[in-house]
Amino acid sequence: MAVDLSEFDHPAWLTVVGTGIGYGLILAVLTVAMFVVPWLVFSAL
After folding, report:
1. Strands (DSSP E) found in 1-45
2. Is the pTM of this model over 0.90?
3. Membrane-spanning residues where (predicted)?
4. How far apart are CA 38 and CA 29, in angstroms?
5. How many CA atoms does the CB half-sphere of 26 hold within 13 Å?
6. Which of 25, 22, 45, 23 is nearest to 33 (CA)?
7. Suppose 36 and one of 5, 12, 32, 43 were both cysteines; which one would form an S-S bond, judging by CB atoms 3.0 to 4.6 Å apart?
């Protein structure tokens, strides 16, 4: 079964990828801000 990759050339797929990357970056920043930074502050005391 051959897969036609040209169906993924639609701009909506770029939006899906951009949304996923943006969501991942926001989650990473919030995780660092809410867990890593306080852990570093309290471990330095």
Report:
1. none
2. no
3. 20-42
4. 13
5. 6
6. 25
7. 32
